[in-house]
Design goal:
Blueprint (H helix, E strand, L loop, with lengths): L7 H24 L14 H6 L8 H7 L1 H8 L8 H5 L3 H5 L10 H8 L14 H4 L19
Helix pairs in contact: 3-4
Length: 151
């Protein structure tokens, strides 16, 4: 029987492939957390870590308790699907203590949704921010709770 003779390039390529795959498997063994895969492609212990964090969002119902007039205005326009905290930021501290003021709406909050982007539908109002307005606040000209009306 004749012995198989492989070219040296093939031998090196096979050894390199074995080295790469072996390195990957060793790294995967040591770097994958033990709870990974408990809930599919997810680290199971992450649920307990997330639950232990301090709550920072109050929710729309908490806003409606004190600011029902503004909330009702919001429900009647194109921003009705937005959460109050989507623009004003986390407001749990404000809901617990009204003396703590929530974040004030600023220019960057509006631009993240209304900056011109070809992937957005045509009916969604879009602007090129640097051409539209160079001031600090969109609220100087627009009412976010009633966007179709000017102040």
């Amino acid at each position: 029987m004749k012995r198989l003779h492989l070219p040296p390039q093939i031998v090196r390529l096979v050894l390199l492939t074995i080295g790469i795959v072996g390195s990957y498997l060793v790294a995967r063994y040591f770097l994958t957390p033990p709870s990974f895969g408990e809930y599919g492609w997810y680290r199971g212990s992450a649920l307990a870590e997330l639950a232990s964090r301090d709550q920072v969002y109050a929710g729309t119902k908490a806003c409606d308790e004190c600011h029902s007039e503004e909330y009702q205005k919001l429900l009647g326009n194109s921003h009705k699907t937005l959460s109050c905290e989507g623009c004003h930021g986390p407001s749990k501290a404000h809901a617990d203590n009204p003396d703590v003021k929530p974040e004030i709406l600023n220019y960057s909050h509006c631009v993240r949704c209304h900056e011109a982007n070809p992937s957005r539908p045509k009916w969604h109002k879009q602007i090129v921010a640097r051409d539209h307005y160079t001031g600090d606040r969109c609220t100087e000209c627009h009412l976010p709770h009633q966007p179709s009306e000017a102040p």
